[in-house]
Design goal:
Distance between the termini: 61 Å
Radius of gyration: 31 Å
Order of helices and strands: HHEEEEH
Number of helices: 3
Oligomer: single chain
Length: 125
């Protein structure tokens, strides 16, 4: 960001070096342009600072969520199924299947009720 401030300072130096008459229309315009550029540089610096802070916050949340997922789901295995009506991805714990490896499911997306059967279980045995 300091490069932007350096460039604005350079432009201010050029404008000052021209010894512009600030009472003329051109002098007022160039002076105001440099002032606006300087204000923009400060605003951009604030936005970049906020963005860095948000990035750090999001990274921390991501790590916390990952830890939480590991703790919650570490012992359970899930199978994924797609709702035939709306396509919502549904996770079903292996504990929810009956002896025939089927489970009654209610889609959280559309509320549709249906039965899913886990064909993968036959392959594992």
């Amino acid at each position: 960001m300091s490069l932007l401030f350096e460039r604005v300072s350079y432009l201010r130096g050029l404008a000052d070096g021209l010894e512009l008459d600030k009472s003329t229309k051109e002098g007022k315009l160039l002076t105001e342009i440099v002032n606006v550029l300087e204000e923009m540089a400060y605003s951009i610096e604030d936005v970049e600072g906020n963005l860095e802070e948000m990035d750090e916050f999001v990274d921390a949340i991501n790590e916390d969520l990952s830890d939480l997922e590991d703790e919650i789901y570490s012992d359970e295995e899930f199978d994924t199924f797609e709702c035939p009506d709306c396509g919502t991805e549904i996770f079903i714990s292996e504990d929810e299947f009956d002896e025939e490896m089927c489970a009654d499911v209610k889609c959280p997306g559309c509320g549709s009720e249906f039965i899913v059967c886990d064909d993968d279980e036959d392959e594992d045995e």
